[in-house]
Amino acid sequence: MKLLLENIKELVQVEENPVQFKSGKQMAELITVKDAFLIIRDEMIQDFGPMSNLKDVYKDDDFLIEIDCSNRLVYPSYCDSHTHLVFPAPREKEFVDRIQGLSYEEIARRGGGILNSAKLLHNTPDEKLYHSAMERIFEMIKTGTGAIEIKSGYGLNTEDEIRMLKIIKWIKETAPVCVRSTFLGAHAIPEQYKNNVTAYVDLVINEMIPQVASEDLADFIDVFCDKGFFSVEDTERILIAALKYGLRPKLHANELGLTGGVQTGVKYNALSVDHLEHMGPGEIEILKNTETMPTVLPGAAFFLGMKLSPVRQMIEAGLPVALSSDYNPGSSPSGNMNFISSLGCINYKMLPEEVINATTINTAYAMGISDRLGSIARGKIANLFITSEMPGIEYLPYSFGSNLVETVILNGEVQSV
Fold first, then answer.
1. Fewer C-beta neighbours within 10 Å, C or N terminus of the chain?
2. Do 154 and 187 meet the contact criterion of CB atoms below 8 Å apart?
3. Is residue 42 domain-shared with residue 154, that is, in the same domain?
4. DSSP, residue by residue, 170-220
5. pLDDT at residue 61 above 80?
6. Residues 190, 157: contact at Cβ < 8 Å?
7. Are residues 328 and 387 in the same domain?
8. Are β-strands 384-389 and 405-410 bridged in parallel, bridged antiparallel, or unpaired?
9. How far apart are CA 3 and CA 39, in angstroms?
10. In this model, does residue 178 exceed pLDDT 70?
């Protein structure tokens, strides 16, 4: 199939010389082409440029489909590098508990939170888990997302963690988006192990990780390394075991305190460290010049009323920053990356250019896919969206309550959304 997008008002996040990610001052740099065309052949981006070049280069070419993008912008699809979107049910009652003053940690101590989802998942059939997750994925596609990382972590025993990962594999094989899978057996401490965390860590290491690896069910491993969850020592034991099987870490870190998660992530060459509400000078310094992507989850901070990650300090120190949704039933029940972009601008004082880099090329890097997604570049997969009519890139985060995604193209094909 061949597809021509013509008369594009502005083609956003263009790369002539692709990079892995943007950091520091580079995050405010964004290359666009105004009055542009884009050509897609099969599933790949073949060419792009100003409309004035189109007739000279392709004057005798026949296009199967032509789309007029007058007054519209074209973006690479969002890459959402942190989600928990396979879950059995929403947790709206805990939402009311928080309104009445209970904290996230208090709800967890009462058997709510992650443990609540684990209990429900155990009794939910695979088909129901798959179909409800697919509904969420199609909801995310409508708002511009074209790549999603999905974690396990609501099993908390070997059988259910493996079930979750097999469901994620099923989604990988059938969803039109790019899906990456993360094993998160160390998401919370099960009730029966609350007085013997070491025994649960032993179970993760000796039983879960070998089975996950032998069945090739995960691209990454994650640990909730934070206050009230898994210690640095627990996390290190798990990561050492996982690295023997080739599973690269992506860590939950520093959501609830300065608990050493960032330092542990850097020590074990984590692809990303995520949450980062608590960041001191030491955490910022140790992330400099590493291969670890600091990933902030604005939806969780917004929903839980948590302190905000010091994004401006991080960027000014020269770090890259990624923004992801953390779509999950307890602390961020939305996968709308347009809203995440708005929060980036409104709450974290990021420029629209910085937000675009943080939700495309940087999140693609945090999923290990920036070589094929995250920007408009020749030879990359054609995952992109066309907006409705709008004046410029500032308008998307400005209009936080609207879905301005008009057309979605995934793997070079126009989606019915």
1. N
2. yes
3. no
4. HHHHH-SSEEEEEEEEESS--GGGTT-HHHHHHHIIIIIHHHHHHTT--SE
5. no
6. yes
7. no
8. antiparallel
9. 6
10. yes
For 92-101, how does the pLDDT look when each residue is reduced to its tens digit (9 = 90+)? Answer: 988 888 899 8
Same-domain status, 63 and 169: no
Which range marks the domain in which residue 152 is found? 78-366
With a CB cutoff of 8 Å and minimum separation 6, the contacts of 156 are 114, 115, 118, 185, 187, 188, 190
- CA-based nearest residue to 406, from 3, 54, 396, 38: 396
In terms of pTM, does the model score above 0.90?
yes
What DSSP line would sit under 230-284, residue for residue? Answer: B-HHHHHHHHHHHHTTT-EEEEEESSSS--SHHHHHHHTT-SEEEE-SS--HHHH
Judge if 379 and 294 occupy the same domain.
no
Report the alpha-carbon distance of residue 293 to residue 287 in Å, rounded.
8
Q: How many domains in the chain?
A: 2
- DSSP state at residue 121: H
* Same domain membership, residue 107 and residue 130: yes
The overall longest dimension of the chain from CA atoms, in Å, is 73
Same domain, yes or no: 56 and 172: no
> From the CB of residue 63, how many other CB atoms can be counted at a distance below 10 Å?
16
Beta bridge pairs of residue 385: 75, 408
